[in-house]
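Thread: DoxX family protein, structure

OP (GT): Posting the sequence first so everyone is looking at the same thing. Length is 140 residues per the record. Can we get the structure tokens written out before standup tomorrow? I want them in the notebook alongside the other entries.
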Amino acid sequence: MRERTLGAMWKDAGPRLRSVLRMVAALLFIFPGTMKLFGWPIAMPGGATAAFGTQVWLGGVLEVYGGALLLLGLFTRPVAFLLAGEMAVAYFQFHQPKGFWPIQNGGLDAALYCFVWLYFSAAGAGPWSVDALRHGRTNA
């Protein structure tokens, strides 16, 4: 009987875990967008929603629709690249002026999402995605 090392088992699971990470991150990413656009599941500070056409509203649109596309794994690379840029702008425009460290300035989520989406723009969606179905690569 051939024993598999832990490293070999994780190597085989890597592409599927990439898909799981994409789906979980995308689902969680949608919530700040629904908060900005619909006041759900909680309202923005002050109880309002983002005014139509403002930068915050545009961010909400990108988070809801971009997050949904990433959840499905559809057009993953370009959408993830766009969302990485959105998070970089959010960090440097809204968070970084409040302090140097992300934990200090409230930008921890924006910084982390920026690099998660940058990773997916390079790595792709993984085997459990519409992109993989479109390109015939469902078994990784």
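GT: Both are above now. Quick notes for whoever picks this up: The longest helix spans residues 6-38. The helical segments are 6-38, 55-72, 76-95, 102-105, 108-123, 130-134.
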